[in-house]
Specification:
Layout (H helix, E strand, L loop, with lengths): L1 E12 L9 E2 L7 H12 L8 H4 L2 E8 L2 E7 L13 E17 L1 H12 L19 E6 L3 H7 L6 H6 L5 E9 L8 E9 L6 E15 L7 H4 L21
Parallel strand pairs: 2-5
Antiparallel strand pairs: 1-5, 1-6, 3-5, 3-7, 4-5, 7-9, 8-9
Amino acid sequence: MSVLTLRLAGPLQSWGASARFARRTTETAPTKSGVIGLLAAALGRDRSADLSDLAALGFAVRIDQPGTRLRDFQTAHHADTGKAMPVSDRFYLADAVFVTAVAGNDDLIRSLHTAVRAPVYLPYLGRRSCPPQGPIDLGVQDGDNPSEVLAAETWQASSWYQEQRRKDALVTLTVLADTTPGSPLGDAVRDQPVSFDPRHRRYALRSVHSTTVDVPNPGFRPSARARRTPVPVPRHAPEALLSPMDGP
């Protein structure tokens, strides 16, 4: 078993799990269906292709930089008739950074690693209008537990965001992972992909539990007061100033 890790960062991201019609919301972190869709596109699979092997991958995501929720109010018209289309609200995450991990058999993970390094269809972060910032590949590691791999992964937040936390030697990050046997019960989320066929998209429920991990801060700089070498305080001994009394 192997684990593939990806850094998902960009000016905008949008990961909808319950978006419908004119209101397109976003979750606070990448959804499993969104990441599986990215991987399927990198492999060059058609939208109607079988997803069972990818859907069976273990999945976890770590929130390295939560970003800011942004609302975009959109209007549009039909190109042929000029008739107005329904007004819509689109929500995005601005300046967010996530690390995702997928676990599966070695051959499948190696093929996915090759695909994200040279994708057939370019990856995007939830929507086609959200390209990633730079390469997304962080490599492949041995193991079968995505959460454990994420706990050991270096902090991937932007340098300016790390600078804001420079006084913290460790940073506490949230990890959202598939519920596994023996793990606490989680929240039910409908983002387990079944089919991406545009004629009948289907998603099943999956259970997600939330944990936290502490990772080292590569930009840690102790304060000047903490760096200062303490000066030892001498023992208070007033009797040392007294002259010894002469005997009779």
